[in-house]
Design goal:
Elements: E1 5-7, H1 17-21, E2 27-29, E3 36-38, H2 49-53, E4 59-61, H3 80-89, H4 103-114, E5 126-130, H5 133-155, H6 160-166, H7 174-185, E6 197-203, H8 210-228, E7 231-234, H9 236-245, H10 249-254, E8 259-267
Antiparallel strand pairs: 1-4, 2-3, 5-6, 6-8, 7-8
Helix pairs in contact: 4-8, 5-7, 5-9
Bound molecules: flavin mononucleotide.
Flavin mononucleotide binds at residues 91-92, 94, 233-237.
């Protein structure tokens, strides 16, 4: 459908709120008459702020018909104390039970992720949910294979000086990679830790803010997972392997277009942590 935006002159009370909130400044007030008009519609980023702020439904936006716009009450927000408790109590819980994560819960986690802001409201990210056990094993195998190759390079006397030059911190990971590989041989998967689902968040390779968009979506998802009683942790090892691989191997294996920028391993908790702890002193520069 072609994009259209009209401010209904008969309904408009000229409060000017839509003019104030439009980030692209395409909604303006005519100087002479004070009427609100739309100019340069091609710059609309389809954020919907105009329709959300209008007190009398005078904003007619093709992407936001009345049935898509929902009134709500700020009184229904969780209290600051409740949000703070969630921030303090959310943890990466890796102790999963054998239970699968119900699809209904995965859908709510995805919906929360989908609500996160994206740069210029470009909404370029999309999601892949992996629950197939063979595919989950393949993700671990891919990650460990990348780490095995990295170890080989770091232990090769001819290549190691180059690695040291290009990635001085890489050698820090030698004992970690060795442990991951050793444990895997023993049937202990420290990459996905028997997670029953993985959510990958991907964006086009050339996306300027794909990484930021994906990771903001991740955080929404992790807070929702916490509230739903689903355990999760960030698949940093997998993401690091994707970064090192550079060939898009995992994306190809999973049939994902674009690049994975964030990943979440999920499962139902074997148990939950009963306490949260104080953090070290916060470091802030006030200026
Ligand atoms: C970028 C990033 C990568 C991470 N990668 C992993 C990972 O691969 N495996 C894992 O078990 N936890 C991973 N974590 C979870 C961290 O270890 C965890 O957030 C940290 O220990 C603090 O614990 P908390 O999340 O319970 O507060 C990652 C976290 C972040 C932010």
């Amino acid at each position: 459908m072609e994009l259209s935006l009209n401010i209904c002159a008969e309904k408009c009370i000229r409060c000017g709120k839509c003019v104030q909130v439009c980030p692209s400044m395409i909604i303006r007030r005519k100087e002479e008459s004070g009427e609100i008009e739309v100019k340069e519609l091609q710059n609309c980023i389809v954020c919907g702020h105009c329709a959300a702020v209008c007190p009398i439904e005078a904003v007619e936006h093709s992407e936001f018909p009345v049935k898509k716009v929902h009134a709500f009450d700020y009184k229904d927000y969780p209290t600051p104390e409740e949000v703070m408790l969630l921030c303090k109590a959310r943890r990466s819980n890796r102790a999963f039970s054998a239970q699968v994560v119900p699809e209904e819960l995965l859908k709510q986690i995805l919906e929360a992720a989908h609500r996160a802001p994206t740069a210029s409201n470009a909404r370029e990210i999309c999601f892949t949910v992996v629950t197939d056990l063979a595919k989950l094993k393949m993700i671990t195998d891919f990650t460990l294979e990348v780490f095995r190759l990295a170890l080989k390079k770091m232990k090769n006397p001819l290549l190691s000086p180059l690695v040291r030059l290009l990635m001085p911190d890489a050698f820090r990971y030698v004992p970690i990679f060795e442990r991951l590989l050793r444990e895997n041989e023993r049937g202990n998967d420290l990459i996905l830790r028997k997670a029953k689902a993985v959510i990958f968040i991907q964006a086009p390779r050339e996306s300027r803010f794909g990484c930021q968009d994906a990771n903001l979506a991740y955080q929404n998802a992790s807070l929702m997972a916490e509230c739903l009683g689903v355990s999760q942790f960030y698949t940093g090892f997998v993401c690091s392997a994707i970064e090192q691989d550079k060939k898009g191997t995992l994306e190809k294996k999973l049939g994902i277009e674009g690049r994975i920028f964030a990943g979440m391993a999920l499962g139902m908790p074997a148990f939950r942590l009963a306490k949260y702890m104080d953090r070290e002193e916060i470091k802030v520069n006030w200026m």
